[in-house]
Amino acid sequence: MNDIERQFVALREGQLHLRRLEAQAEGANPAVPAVLLLHPSPASSWFMQGLMAELRKAGCDATLIAPDTLGNGDSAPPGVDHPDIAYFADSMRRMIDELALERVDLYGSHTGARIACEFAAAYPDRVRRVVLDGIIEYDDDMRNAIIENYAPRIEPDEFGRHFVWAFNFVRDQALHFPWFMRDPEHRLAGPVPPAAVLHRAALDVLKALDTYADPYIAAFEYRAYERMPQIEAPVLLLKPDSELPVLQAAVAKAASLLRDGRIATVPGGDTSKAGAIADFLAAVLRNE
Asked: What is the pTM of this model?
């Protein structure tokens, strides 16, 4: 969308980059807070643009803000060694402080969902409503295997082999989960994204080659189920029919832990997700 602008916010780590779609002037409700859209790893806010456009079409007239997580995209690296999800959630709090936003609605996908979960648990007075998309806890064996293997530290290679690795890394994520378990049991059913999308994802990895792993590791180490009971805000759990079966199964578990958890089963894709999100965010104005 041509209306999406780019912005940088100064944090103590350096410049945090975001994409922003301003609230529509006509008909905008001043009581509706901005919506933060937190992207999955290893991507950036570039991949939130389609959802931003569909949210606007679905009637969400709020300001939409999609930041690049520290260590991803065009944002500065984290300012600490081995940052955890609480650190990334705090960086979002500091960002909205700089943007003079008192409260926000939150949408998070995968790593972004864990950041949104922690933000809502840690800063209840700064959140109105939360949407979590693709959040789960793995058993200890799987968690340890993923932490050890999923996001390897890669250094530039004199023959450019890191370029080839980056493209294969993002492609393999569409073939298996975890991508390094290449057997039928872990084969994904969905199609591989088009080459242009894989190219853009590979660029995001290469751009943050030194730090792309930090949010990943934090996400896999995060104990979301321990924090969910602390969330006071209403939470919508998206259940896309295109998602991994293990993630679909985790939705009911997550809902049982939340004080006010709802589930929306939707087809895959930004259009259906945007419709469910927009309806959930508008429900508070209908006293639902």
From this structure: 0.96
Label residue 108 by pLDDT band (50, 70, 90): very high
Over residues 24-62, the pLDDT tens digits come to 765 556 678 999 999 999 999 999 999 999 999 999 999
CA–CA dist 278, 56 (Å, integer): 9
User: Which of 86-95, 119-128, 246-255 bottoms out in mean pLDDT, i.e. has the lowest?
Assistant: 246-255
- Give dist(CA 255, CA 64) in Å, integer: 26
Where helices occur in the chain by DSSP H, the ranges are 49-57, 85-98, 111-122, 140-149, 161-172, 195-207, 213-221, 224-227, 245-257, 270-283
Separation CA 271–CA 57 (nearest Å): 9
Rounded CA separation 240/167 (Å): 26
Residue 72 falls in which region: left (phi positive, over 0), alpha (psi -120 to 50) or beta: beta
- Other beta carbons within 10 angstroms of residue 156's beta carbon come to 11
Distance, in Å, from the CA atom of 114 to the CA atom of 222, rounded to the nearest integer, reads 7
DSSP string, 201-270: HHHHHHHTTTTTHHHHHHHHH--HHHHGGG--S-EEEEEETTS-HHHHHHHHHHHHHSTTEEEEEE-SSH
- Report pLDDT for 25: 64
Confidence of residue 169 (pLDDT cuts 50, 70, 90): very high
